[in-house]
Specification:
The protein is an alpha/beta fold. It has 3 domains: about 80 residues, Udp-n-acetylmuramoylalanyl-d-glutamate--2,6- Diaminopimelate Ligase, Chain: A, domain 1 (3-Layer(aba) Sandwich); about 210 residues, Mur-like, catalytic domain (UDP-N-acetylmuramoyl-L-alanine:D-glutamate ligase, 3-Layer(aba) Sandwich), CATH 3.40.1190; about 140 residues, Mur ligase, C-terminal domain (Protein-Tyrosine Phosphatase, Chain A), CATH 3.90.190. About 35% of the residues lie in helices and about 20% in strands. It is built from 15 helices and 20 strands. The strands form 4 sheets. It has a 6-stranded parallel β-sheet with strand order 7-8-6-9-10-11, with helices on both faces. Strands 15-16-20-17-18-19 form a 6-stranded mixed β-sheet, sandwiched between helices. The chain has a 5-stranded mixed β-sheet with strand order 1-5-4-3-2. A hairpin with a 2-residue loop joins strand 13 and strand 14. Helix 7 packs across helix 8.
Amino acid sequence: MTLWSLSEVAHHLGGQVLGDPSIVPASLSMDTRTLAPNACFVAIRSARDGHEFAAQAVAIGASCVLVDHVLGVDCAQLVVEDTLAALQGWGQARLAAVRPPAVFGITGSVGKTSTKELLAAATGAWKTPGNRNNTFGLPEALATLPAETKAVVLEMGMSTPGEIQRLTEIAPLDFGLITLVGKSHIENFAEGQRGIAKAKGELVAGLKAGGTWVHLASDEWCRWISLQPWALHAAAIPVGDRQPFGWEHATSLGLKGEQFTLRLPQGRVDISLKLRGAHQVRNAALAGSLAVLAGFAPESVAEGLGQVEPEPGRGRLHPLPQGGWLLDETYNASPDSILACAASLLDLEGGEPVAVLGCMRELGAESAHLHRETGEGLRALGFQRIWVYGDQAEALAGGFGLGARAFPDFESLRDGEQGLGAMPAGARILVKGSRYWRAERVVEWVLEQGKQEA
């Protein structure tokens, strides 16, 4: 089955086509900044009304537009009552029409995207690109799902209750994976971490009857999810110590990645990862276990897991002058992910380990406490110096103690006498922070300084 023409989409959505109904969009886009040629531009009413950008979208290559009223643009138009509902309906209908034998869903407070990449490689699956994991991006990607795929891996994110439930309505799941129930977005949940567990558990509630999901055996909140009445229709498989599914003999290979043995009921298989850190071993064990449970051969699963490369902002490693390294983990940050990445930095050979951190967001009333705990955790790992900037820099630095340097913003971190310029030569440097603080600017500054020194 090829991609749908506008007339076929209109049949599924009940819309009206003005212009050429035979046009087949190659992709969908809600953003003129990333719109590809021959895309259908979807005009969403949000903080800005997407209809205002339709003419611009056509000018840069859109072949058609999805709108809620007729516009004066020179291209085909698919007119519907509600463009967001139509976008979601398009993705839902496309998946239903070309549904492969296995549809996987992944969520969790940390590690979603890395685990998505691992599971997709282990199963040869189509996957949601980038961070299209919300009620806008996931259906946008699904709308042009290729036919005859043998598996689909969908990342499902959330910041408030009900979001994952809606995603599983758009894309009903056969298999699920929860990486970890942490404290990200806790300010949006009156019940605290229990509320986060309920929201993550919406993925389990959205599994088809008889479905299977995996979680870390050590995650008490995932165990809690598995016991809830709304989760009993699916099989919960813990992965970890003293379980039929787990990992053993994990060994850091430093720059080369990680090595471990995946333990399965049918035997053991050795895995070599290019990703670094004990947290990636856990992610790979979860992905590999679920792939085997879904019927994929352990040998092909092992081969696929070993092919995944670190992405920018998610574990990309840069060599620095005088033998140093920069570990770019700037995509986002939570207490769990900061400590996991910091531990992985210590497995690298080199000079003094240091961390440059932007503060974390959406932690609510617990924010100062969680920042202090993160500082304490970094000290316990063995770090002697850290640089931190943002609104909770003083709290994180206070938890760390002597050797912490706090700054209110990136500019003071960059320009201050004790700022980035004071980092030791040849250091192993972890850079991480919330998207709000744009920690990638630290990476750019350090790499530019390295070029000047080379």
